[in-house]
Amino acid sequence: MSSIVAGTRQKTLRHPPGPTGNWPLGVMRDFRADALSTFLHLRETYGDALRFRFLLHFHGHAFFHPDHVEHILVHNNRNYVKMRGPGNELLRPVVGNGLLTSDGDFWLRQRRLAQPAFHRRRIAAFSTTMTGAAGAMLDRWADRAGTGQPWDVAEEMRRLTLEIAGRTLFSVDLTGEAETIGDAFVTASQKVIDYSAIPYGSLFLRVPFMPGVRTLNRNVAALDSVVNGLIAERRQRRREGQGESADLLDMLMDARDEETGATMTDEQLRDEVMTLLLAGHETTALALSWTFYLLSQHPEVRERLEAEVDAVLGGRVPTMDDIHALAYTSQVIDEALRLYPPAYLLSRFVVENDVVDGYDIPAGSVLSLSPYVTHRHPEFWPEPERFDPDRFTPEQQAGRPRFAYFPFGGGPRQCIGNRFALTEAVLVLAMVTQRYRLDLVPGHPIALEPLITLRPKHGILVTSTGRS
Could you tell me if 392 and 329 are in contact, meaning their C-beta atoms sit under 8 angstroms apart? Predict the structure, then answer.
């Protein structure tokens, strides 16, 4: 493969190869039908750099090689921003101008404000909340163990991680809001994806009487009621002298602009809380849900996981100090994230002309990276569909390019909560493994649903058996 050279322009534009599709839709119907399979097929057909037509003369670009990913996310990251991408605009009704969608100096300021909440010492303190919530959940599972009663482990994981995110980041118990938040987020996500499959689909959001827009707005309002209620309650407590500046919400409320001294408005707080609340529970819940599905299909991996958990913990509750010793447990999570990365697609807007691997990328282009596809690149992942946690031994990892694996993105915009999520996932997986075996209900369909995150379309129905 030729080296990547950036910053110089050739006299004649050299575009990456790719399909034109039919007239006038291009490949839009293929992406609407199955975006992930379409990307996989296009990479196999055209290679690691791709240009495709999306309705009339609108073109998109996608890059799949780890060197491409590193160039875009790290070496020239300032040229690939999130602010103006159409898919990003579609996210704004849900998460506003929070960390996920903002850019430039505003994003950097907000990132610096939130970063202390995710420092290692704070995560260590959070770990007891994580294990306490997981232990209470496992106690509730006792009545169904061994009965053959089916239940949805994906729903259970969403409730658990929402409880943990609420308690650790915002000092509130949101378990009573789990159904409202879950249903509203799924429905809003579906509408975002529907419009993102249409070029300039964000323009439709300005037509409030459209049925799809009404549905989106109604579900965003349901999410707003939870988040704005949380903010209002905290403001009231602080007015009454009960604020202790102890959690992320207090840190955000106390933050002041270095130049003006102004604090965040309620709208800014809403956007950051919404972003961190949804991202803080959704990705970890999905990582765990897909992990339990994969373990149910690979009993040899599950037995090895059980052996490690039993040997390291001896029946006690895990702590932060056990994470290093639970090496295979971490590898299981990493391999599940390779196969089913919750953030399966990253979009960027190209600010200035660039050259990636000899291909010209014009300013104003929209560019996609896909962890889902790169994580299946056969050059770096032999038998890519096979579930094999040994891919993540230190020796195996040392032999791969850094960005052959990027479930949390990379560069300055790497997910702020990645360490929080991995710690939570390892602790919860270890505790579940101690006490139960989960088996997929025979005949239950497992299908991917790529909304804002990569969800199991029909949930993951399992039965549970207690381990002595």
Answer: no
